[in-house]
Amino acid sequence: MEFTDEYRKTMYYSSLKNSLVHQRIEMVSVTKFEDYTLEEFKEILVNKSPTAIYNIMYSTEKPCWHITRLVMPSDGGVWCYANNSANKIPRFKTWEQFYNMIKISGFQPIRF
Is residue 10 part of a domain? Predict the structure, then answer.
């Protein structure tokens, strides 16, 4: 007996009907986190003007970084210091330096 394509299709579909499982189609949603670009990061800091930035992997009570001066759009960067640093004198970080410093730990655990 030669198996034709029609015969194979019939066998496949009949085996689906006679199986002991329910076929269920589900839509699975996936949440993907994307890092802010430098321009988006700068815009958020200018609009929100945080004075302390928390990294919840470090602590939820103590800020990880302190911003000591108001962030203005015309500024070339941020005056800040790290809380875990022995030297608490504020230093000027350009936008790119500050962005990279924050991005090292990842943006997901950052709060302000």
Answer: no
Whole-prediction pTM value? 0.68
Cβ-contact 48, 106 below 8 angstroms: no
Is the residue at 1 inside a domain? no
pLDDT band at 49; cut points 50, 70, 90: confident
> Going along the chain, which residue ranges are E strands?
52-55, 65-67, 77-82, 91-94, 110-111
Express each pLDDT in 89-108 by its tens digit.
Answer: 999 999 999 999 888 878 88
In a domain, 15, yes or no: no
The upper half-sphere exposure of residue 53, i.e. CA atoms within 13 Å in the direction of its Cβ, equals 26
Residue 52, C-beta contacts closer than 8 angstroms, at least 6 positions apart: 63, 65, 66, 67, 112
Other residues' Cβ atoms within 10 Å of the Cβ of residue 25: 4
Which range marks the domain in which residue 50 is found? 38-111
Taking the C-alpha atoms of residue 110 and residue 52, their distance in angstroms, rounded to an integer, is 11
Report d(CA 37, CA 65) in Å as an integer: 20
